[in-house]
Amino acid sequence: MKTVKISQQLFGNLIRYHLLDFYDVEPNIKKELEKKMEAYKKRGLYTKYKTAETEEEREQARNEYLELIGLNDDFRW
Question: What is the C-alpha separation between 56 and 59, in angstroms, rounded?
């Protein structure tokens, strides 16, 4: 099983939310987890791009990555 690193602030907010019932930290937890998920997706596409066996798979992963980060088609090579 792979591990995922989180910030100390997020960890503290998760403890406050789940163990101490401080529900006011929920928006911060949601925002940080969404950022983490985006980074996870980007890393997955980058890895797919680097390890693709065919040029078509590599190009598809590269385009998906560029779309995910919001790079305009005019700036792509």
Answer: 5
